[in-house]
Structures
1.
Amino acid sequence: MSLRSKRLTITAIIIGSIIISIPCLFLYGEAEVPLKYNNRTITGYNCGAVTNVSRDLLFGYSVTLLLTSLCGIFALISLYSVILRIIYKKESVRKKNNYGQNVNVKQGLGNTNNPDGSTYTDAESYSTNLDSTTTSNQQQTNEGEPTIKENKSTVPAEIRTRRKSKTVQILCRIMHKHRFFIMFFLIAILSCISYLPRFALMIAGSVISNFWDELTDVEYFIALCFYRGYLLNTAVNPVIYLVFDTDFRSSCKQLCCRN
């Protein structure tokens, strides 16, 4: 995609968003919300549908916003799927190249350091065997017979530590390998949670004229939290990118250090 196409796409998205948002200026405004507490009625104000607006027009606009949101979510999922496919292809090619280079390096080191053909692929096991042999030889020299009780007592602890470390390494490797999939999945789920309940409440408010008046205080508070759910998406999205995207995190660090 060329730079010109990117600019045209962004411009079209901005213009389309402005066109879709213009009816909000005429369909929504300041609405009174009566709250009852200890036999007292408190009148609050909230951004809601205007009373003198046609319900059919309000319902059609709410459905249009819902369909637009669904199209945006599906477009987001499709775009992320294409990006993931490209990333996994590049990762597979890179791993094949690195594997071939590592095999060549190991073969060269084995031929240079071990002429008899014996190689050690695990440096930790080699050092453990070397320490065990040295301890056994020292005990044979001092006491005349080998004793390996101390080594036997330490082997299970070393094995358990090694297994735990390997498990952590496997989990970290899986998280690192699939970090982009996890990141895109969380972003898509967060978008659904943030926007779909809001549009559902907008449709309910357009169909039922006194929808907000019939809610209790607790129900009104819960519904208002879902209605303002888009704020959650705005606040959490940068955190998700900071956790999973290393390039974005390094760019933020450079920007903060520069300032």
2.
Amino acid sequence: MAQEAAKTPKRSSPIKTAYLILYNAVSAILWATVLGRTVGANMLRGPAFVYVSTGDFVLWTQTLMIMDVLHGLFGMHCPNRPRHRCRPSRVPLRRCLGVQYPFPALCASPVYSSMLFAWSVTEVIRYTYLAVKLGGYEPAAFTWVRYSSYLVLYPLGITSEMIQMWRALAPAGHKFGPLYQLFLGVSLFVIWPIGAYVLIGHMNRQRRKVLAAQKSENMKATQ
């Protein structure tokens, strides 16, 4: 009996679950706002005005993502499906502080808009999925979108980030000196490619695992 009790997954408290649902719902709304501002500014005034409309809002929205890391450190898992935990995503704050914030002129490019589009759509999907899942629902179609949309959005976002870093290399040297320029160069040619490989590889494994489990459950349900 003791062994059976030890194997029983620990249920999350209703308060913690409610907090995580609220956190993910608020995060989804914030990123949906980023998406709306990005699309709206492009349609109404062009890409040169996107940073004016989104700059500080994106910075604070990204800052909130630090909570993802803290949730992971304190073991705040998705309680309704123990087979995969709510992993903290990479926090993109450094991209805003390291390139976009010091060099706002770079943000007049359509590349900045494509980067924000990739970030915001990715996070709206991810946070909405987690909020719905924590509420006890996991629609099959939404699960497929969650674990398939990255195949387009991640390459778009990562490529846009790298183009922005490339464009920042020269002004970084003039404004902050050769050491900062070297840091950006190492980030561009070493850290980002390795990080992209690891991140997309992780998502590929998660996709295979989650969709295979979903297929197995569907087959059992039809038997």
3.
Amino acid sequence: MLTRRTVFGAAFGSMLAAPAVLRAQVAVTGDIATILAGVSDFSRFVEIAQRAGEIDRLKGTQALTVFAPTNAAFDRMPAGLLQDLLGQSQGSQAGSPDQFRLKALVTHHIVAGVVTVQTMRGGQRDIPSLNGGLVRLDGTGSVPTIAVARPSGGPSSNFGTGVGGQNVQPPARIVLADVLASNGVVQGIDHVLLP
């Protein structure tokens, strides 16, 4: 018998080799938190969302879009940054997660409303994330991308650096598209957006 985890696991594994956007082929029921927990390659995002106290929001009734980084995306983060945020680094802050920055990181990957690949096609637009920063949705290429956006007239540091002054990574590509949930949609992305 096929379970949601088996179907998503097979679909997600095959998408890593595919250059195009993989669309979820299975009708899914459940909230965003349940959907994310059912896909093993989102386990790090789920862990960080739990530590940031954001799981209840992902279970709520507000329509949301979550641009969820894959586990491989977290592997691409600057060395030591994730460990520092989670309180797993050495030194005086060891064992003490940085709740403020964890929350900022998670909520920078969430926007109000439902954003599908189809609504992104053909243009660029900046929309506010739940942490107040802007994310740039770019649907002009063959694979839609998401990036940290610099506010018009705003400080260039928002575009050039991120959490802890690290360089912002390249735009994230959607690698698993339009996974529908009862309270929104999940878009799997291949890079972490550093606010």
4.
Amino acid sequence: MPSRKPITDWQPSWWWWWEIMAVTICIASTAGLVALLKSIDNTPLRQWNLPIQPNTAIASLTTIAKVALAPRNLADLQLFDAASRGPWGSLIFLFQVSSPIKALVTVGFSLLTILALGLDASAQQLLQFPIQEMEINDGSVVMGAATGYNSKSINARPPIQALNANIIPLQYEILNTLRGSTFNSYFTCPQKAARCTWDNLSTLGVCSSWNRASVASDGCAMTTARVPGGPSNATYAVCNYTLSNSQSGNSELAAAIYPQQLNLSFRLPSVDFISGNKVFESHFIPGPYHYPAGTEFGEFWALKAPKSTNFSTQASFNPPEAEAFYASFWWCSKSYQGITAEPSGVKYEASSSERLSFLFNKTINNGISTESSFTYKANSTGMNYTLEEGTFETLTTYFNSLLTAEASDELYVIADGSILAIGGLLYQQDLENMTTSIADTLTNIMRSRTLDENFNITNVAGRAFFDETYIRIQWIWLLLPLAETALITLLFILSVVITSKQPLLKDSVLAYLATTVKDDAGNTSDLRMTQWTSQQNLDELAEGVIVKLEPDGQGRLGFARKDT
């Protein structure tokens, strides 16, 4: 193949354009990484809208930034070639290079190759995904509060009151209170929310107090009655008990309704099964007791005796000791602070109640009947509450019929639909807990939009808190990618400056051969280079040239050019 003359002209098309583009891409990727991290720092993960995950996006940007880490042509063939092959070779190079000043660029690139080991690891450490609460206040979180009580069921207008099916849910919830169950307060809270909160709330409610009453026996009278479930008669001791209540908060009321007399009966001789003993009696006196200014809802009292006795004859019989209980109910204003609704239930940091003060009553004639309403005020909050007379009176009358009961140890016919063993239920219940349940249930019924019993309900807005996964940036781990980019840029600029007066051969392996190739006569081949020789020039000079590694006259190996 004919020899070629050295090409001495400079061809700018093969200058540093590829490297400039690579460094530009590296800088742009790093800048994009910083911008991305800044935009997503401390934001909810659900707001990430790209089809790939944040970790994948960051890994992609750091991978693009590594395009500037391509191996460079090195002056020392053995050490530099090893350094270009990976971190281990770079580390060996750092310990063996003899002139750090002359090899400044190559030392830098060796360090760069070693530091690049941590680039992917640092990128993985950039993101954390902590769980923290996010507050939403968009009006969807509400809790009911009663500004008055005008029942939709027990206050239904004629002629449909007898056909009013809405009374059934109300009665059902009230009956559940006799088992100690409390109707839940009404609120709306998103299903996925960890909790919902309200600062404070005031509502019309029913308050209660519970105490033990004093009881004394007034003696017993003997009588004969039929034995339950059998044809024969038995002797019973009917004992009278007098109840008094020295703990009543209303002395005038206590004087009006106390003392109260109740009676219990016991079979003689006593038996262990189906004795027919009357062991419980209770009464409910509906309010108000001072019309129309009174706020009393009603008074409940009960007498309870042991279920069995150990008396065999009339002569040995003494009235068994009985327990008496007293509960008072009244209309009140209830205030709650620091309300939290969680899956486990509703909790309050603090709560208080206040007996209402009468303001005025108003009477309206609608052409069919005369209707009255009573307006009361809570002095601590300044809020006014209105009670409709029909609701007021009908509800307390219902409690009178419900809680006036007796319980006897006898058989009932379960098929008789008229029998509801209220007395037996009350006898077995914790009456103090039942009293609290009645007051809380009535309060919550008046506030409930679920039961939809009250016309006078308002919504109190609250806040929802969600357990949200957030993106949080660990900025310390960004130092390595930034340092890599800065070092790449600096080393590239130094490379351009240092090689400005040298052949620009970059990573061509032909540069290793060009100055050592000789022909058959032992003369140096014309693969000569000047400071203006480019990689493209060298490729053209080497085209078609065949070389062979063989010993010279002194036995030293070298590359020799062969024409064929």
